[in-house]
Hints:
By secondary structure, the chain is α/β, with parallel strands linked by helices. The chain has five helices and four strands; from the N terminus they run αβαβαβααβ.
Amino acid sequence: MAVAGPFAAALLGDLGAEVIKVESMAMPDAARGLGTAPARGMAGMFIAAGRSKQSIMLNMKSEAGKAAFMELAKQCDVVLQNFRPGAVERMGIDYEAIKIVNPDVIYL
């Protein structure tokens, strides 16, 4: 599990950026279960890396979920993804797809 993406997004949020974390409905963030937790799904790693963010869950395998993601991508300055190599291409949310709806996007 990589925490570089979530931590980078948390730092951007700490600095004042509006950060929206998108989680999968089928496979929520694995950090939800790392370490001790005061409440189920709220383990220490998840809280630390999830700070300063809003969060939504989308079914990225559905057309409606992908359409909702692309609507968010139209309005944002930065898309920061933390998927394994090849995953964003399979989902259709790679840089080439995002720049069609938002040519000025910064894609990390």
